[in-house]
Amino acid sequence: MPLPRPPVQAVVHHENVGRVERLFEPILFGHRLKVILFFVLVSVLLGFQILKLKSDASFQNMIPASHPYIANYLKYENELRPLGNVVRIAVENKRGDIYSQDYLDTLRKITDEVFYIPGVDRSNMRSLWTPNVMWFEVTEEGMTAGHIVPDGFDGSPDKLEQVKTNVVRSGQIGNLVANDHRSTIIMAPLLELDPQTGEKLDYGQFSDRLERLIRQKYENGGIKIHVTGFAKVVGDLIHGARAIGLFFAITFVLACVLLYAYSRCLRSTAVTILCCSLAVIWQMGIVSLLGFGMNPYSILIPFLTFAIGVSHAVQNINTMASEVHGGRSNMAAAKATFRLLFIPGSVALLCDVVGFSTLMVIDIGVIRELAIGASVGVFVIIFTKMFLLPILMSYVGVSPACLRKQERKARSAHRVARTLSRVTEPRVARVVALIALVILGVAWTCSRDLKIGDLDPGAPELRSTSRYNRDNAYTVAHYSSSPDVFVVMVTTRPGECASYPVAAAVERLQWEMENLPGVESTVSLFTGMKKMIAASNGGNLKWSAISRDRYISNEAHRSLPSDLNNNDCSMVPVMLSLSDHKAATLSRVVQAAEKFSAEHSNQDMRFVLAAGNAGIEAATNIVIKQAEVQMLLLVYGIVALLVWWEFRSWRVTVAVMLPLYITSVLCEAIMAKLGLGVKVATLPVIALGVGIGVDYGIYIYNRLEHYLDRGHTLKQAYFETLKTTGTAIAVTGVMLALGVATWVFSDIKFQADMGLLLAFMFLWNMVGAIVMLPALVSLLGASGAARTSTPAVSG
Description:
Layout: E1 9-11, H1 15-30, H2 32-50, H3 68-75, H4 77-80, E2 86-93, H5 101-115, E3 134-139, E4 142-147, H6 157-170, E5 183-189, H7 203-218, E6 223-228, H8 230-241, H9 244-263, H10 266-289, H11 301-325, H12 330-357, H13 365-396, H14 400-411, H15 415-420, H16 426-447, H17 467-478, E7 485-492, H18 500-514, E8 519-523, H19 525-535, H20 550-558, E9 571-578, H21 583-600, E10 605-611, H22 612-647, H23 650-674, H24 683-709, H25 714-741, H26 749-780, H27 784-788, E11 791-793
Antiparallel strand pairs: 1-11, 2-5, 2-6, 3-4, 7-9, 7-10, 8-9
Helix pairs in contact: 1-12, 2-10, 2-13, 3-22, 5-7, 7-8, 9-10, 9-11, 9-25, 10-11, 10-13, 11-12, 11-13, 11-14, 11-25, 12-13, 12-22, 12-24, 16-23, 16-26, 18-21, 19-20, 21-22, 22-23, 22-24, 23-24, 23-26, 24-25, 24-26, 25-26
């Protein structure tokens, strides 16, 4: 029977934190049943709140609403809606061209179905069957016009031939009609808010309606449906996220198996999993109370909450087993565990909160919601892990099998720990530091290739083989008009948008943009006016030019659709069709447009950016690029301050933070090599990795300091640390990595990318804490900090 252990020695640097610890200990362990009842009641109440959680994905929530580009777009949102949040439905005839009665009847039915789907801006919807799509022609009798599908269409050969003629005359080939005449597009702009109910558009429900009412109903052997647009991307993300339950179940089972394999104690595994599950319930319930919903990005937060909770709880199981094996009762062991882990655990979790909350500097709604959700999740872990778990452990204790394993560990030769403890020897420490510097240098060089924004066509959030990206590839291949539109808005005094000075400047802008790589074509009010002026002069192309004569310009202007300028003629959109929305393309266009604006804007006319889906994405890239450095400075700065506040040593702070920095640079290098850009989906990974990775270093050095304070040498102290906390850290790293590695199999590519990157960061942070941290402590002489601190004895 092992002898009882002496009173637990805890190095306390902060009297205030020590007071909190001494305040809570008698409350928690003196009123255990009342505390448990409190946790049960709160869990039930927050559990009911989860039932109110709804899908909350919106167009405006995915964009940087306060960026000047977006502010300019929102100012003219009604006029520019057909160029922003638009769904394109390409209806393909697999058995021939579009000039058949069966195809056109089907197209009419689909047009009617889309028209009545809630959320569609019906007045701006366009199809061959809608009255706002017309043809124009100059004849000997003057200009004539009409609808594409003529009145009284009956499917006869004459009528079909007339439709074919009208399509050619309309100029819609390559736009609404495919270049090969085998498909046509229905363009459906969307309303963010329902004008009748005022509720936000539910993108998941909208996407489901498209699938049920359009694709499933009309797609057959002769008709193929291709749907693209922001709403469909979000809908497919929501659909893919519905499989999140399967990944959570896998993570849950893995955590149970690994915890039991580590502890050999069913009871401590059960209460640990219970506490971590309660943390998830609390997190989701509080998020619901705050008025947030679940979107494809924040739906990953419950995973992280559960995984972080389990990783911290491993320390409780390890310490509890060690104390019971040392001869303490369950109650005494639980109290000792609480004293030993309260300060390092709270500081580590606080670092996690800081790491997540720094994402708030990114002015994009979904990222801020992710930051709030993750911060709330980590904050509630402080309660479930720090307060509830020790109380439950005081009841259940540890099993005899766990104690037998603890005894085997005590008698083991600990060859691995003995070998690893050599990294504290100056000679080995210098080698480790040199290798770390080489890795940092190589990673830093590779990370220079990291780009901001999307690097692939289509929707990079989804896999290249996804249905959406196949639909997008079909649209790009068969239509001349690009789905990626960048809009420059030209603002003037009311009534002056069609004047000659504006026309001349816009024509110059179009010419410069059309000669820019990545811009396929441009369209503006004056593109149509030149055609109308030529048409008014017998169709002579020599007259296809802007005119200084105001009467001629006004006449041409009146003949054009009203969507080429706003109501009071104070804004003209210039639409640039881009070859893609890759980061390099958008950067070139933004630089050229900004330069043109600076040179040609004056008091009568201003060129402002930007609208269109490509313009909005360009603004998002700019915000992310600006916020990335700011976020990293904040996360490293604040976490470093917290580590210094915990250990009161700049040497310890450097030893803890340097491995984290190397991990971040390595993560950026891997992203560059994998072709992943920094964007909404990948930027949070860096903050998440830093926030969680610092836990390892705090736990390692806290226990190392504990043994140094008892008079051990650095090598002896680290050997003892590896036997206890080091083993728990290794289990934690593997558990976290395996938990998120399951995401690699997700249909959602950005979730798979996040899983891969987080798994790497968790494992590499573990290596950094176990190998690099003690080597740096040895080289920097940080171990002396523990000897100068004042120990406080707790009994």
